[in-house]
Structure formats: C-alpha cells, structure tokens
Amino acid sequence: MTHVFTIAIDGPAGAGKGTLARRLADHYRLNLLDTGLTYRAVAYALIQHALPLENVSAAETAARQVDLAKLDRAVLSAHAVGEAASKVAVFPSVRRILVEKQREFAKTPPGAVLDGRDIGTVVCPDADIKLYVTASAEVRARRRLAEIESIGGTADFTEILADIVRRDERDMGRADSPLKPAVDAHLLDTSEMAIEAAFLAAMAIIDDVLAKRNKA
Ligand code: C5P
C-alpha cells in the first residue's frame, strides 16, 4: 500500500492555522482541506433554506450533500456562517457524515494537510504530524480587528473578543470531539510569532520527523 502523508492542524478560530496549512501544503506538495468549510457549508445550506440550526435531520441531509470539491470560501467565510457552523458542529450525526468525507480526502495520494478542531484527535488519529496552533484570545481578536480594518470596515474590539471567547467555549465544551490538543501534538503558540516564524517552526518539526524516518 502506498503511504500517504498526513499533517493534522488543530486550534481555535483565528490562531493562524489556515494560513499555516496553506503554506505547508504548498511546500510539501500535499492536498489541502480546511475542514471548517465543511461545517460552514452545512450551516450555510440551512440558512439559505431558512431552516433553524437546531434541525438535526436537515443538517444531516445538508452534510450528505457537501461536496469537498465545491466548497466556496468566498461565500462560506462570512463571520455569521462561522458562528452558525459551530452550532451545527455539536451534532454527532452531522460530524460522523463529514468526518467520513474528510477521511476519504486524507487517504488520496500523496496525502494532505487538514486543518480544523478534531483532526489529530478524531479524523486522522494516525497522522504523521500533528500540530496544535494557538494564540491568546486577545491576540486573535486584535488580528481579526486589523483584518476588518484593512478592508475598510469597522468593528468593536470588545465585541470581537466576546465572540471569540464564546466560540472557544462552544468548540472546547461540546461533548463530541471537543477542541483539544492530541496527546502527541506539537504545540505552536503564535501569540508573539509572525506567520512566517510559525511556518519555519512547523517546517523544522516536520523535517525532523522526515529525517528520522529516512534514517530508520
Ligand atoms: O475553522 P472555522 O472557523 O471555519 O470553523 C467553523 C466552525 O466549525 C468551528 O467553530 C467549529 O465549531 C466547527 N469545526 C469543527 N470541527 C472541525 C472544523 C470546524 O467542529 N474539524
């Protein structure tokens, strides 16, 4: 059997894992899946059909219809969709359907970088590399504010911070697949680290694992 290489990246919203995942996928020539988009796609479908986010069977149907090749970041990246995604993400049946699709994706050669909340713990527990990327809630809120302002928008820091804390609580507090580092994950705290430094740190970890394997 051909070995596929898997890099699992988990962490809270706004810690920089998406950018890091993209850089690593480019560098190591691996496929890339932002699993947050799959939960966002389910939430978006419910919103489009004016269905309540608590409607589990509609969420299951939407989850079955998620096509990983057709996830539209431009449409799904809205802040409200992320918030809604964290509500449908608490349903175990919805998670089961999406996790199965994510695992299929990970199995496709030459392998993939997947980022999310439960990649190292649930989706790909045998991943070759597991990274847990985090940053303080204040730093994440400041980054989000800067992002909004950079495109000419305005927002209130206190509200953004409250939003981030609420999302963390929902993601870390749910019964099924809560956000937490896998026991064998490498921790990367980006609070005082630019994305380039985080990329270099991740590369050092990965290259070290690859070098040890090549020697074995
Ligand atoms: O990462 P992103 O902000 O796009 O994720 C949106 C929401 O989807 C998260 O707040 C989380 O509740 C859920 N999610 C999840 N498991 C994943 C990825 C995302 O529960 N692997």
UniProtKB/TrEMBL annotation:
Record has Transferase as a keyword? yes
- InterPro entries the record matches: Cytidylate_kin, Cytidylate_kinase_dom, P-loop_NTPase
Which positions does UniProt annotate for ATP binding? G11, P12, A13, G14, A15, G16, K17, G18, T19
Quote the SUPFAM superfamilies the UniProt record gives: P-loop containing nucleoside triphosphate hydrolases
- Give the reactions, separated by semicolons, that this protein catalyses: CMP + ATP = CDP + ADP; dCMP + ATP = dCDP + ADP
The record places domain Cytidylate kinase at: 7-197
Kindly give the Pfam families that the UniProt entry links to this protein.
Cytidylate_kin
Cellular component terms per the entry's GO annotation: cytoplasm
Q: Which UniProt keywords apply?
A: ATP-binding, Cytoplasm, Kinase, Nucleotide-binding, Transferase
Organism superkingdom: Bacteria
Which top EC class is given? transferase
* CDD domains according to UniProt: CMPK
Q: Where in the cell is it found?
A: Cytoplasm
Q: Report a single Gene Ontology molecular function.
A: CMP kinase activity
Q: Name the Enzyme Commission number(s) assigned to this protein.
A: 2.7.4.25
Q: Name one GO biological process term.
A: pyrimidine nucleotide metabolic process
The family classification in the record reads: Belongs to the cytidylate kinase family. Type 1 subfamily.
Protein's name according to its UniProt entry: Cytidylate kinase
Species name for this entry? Answer: Mesorhizobium kowhaii
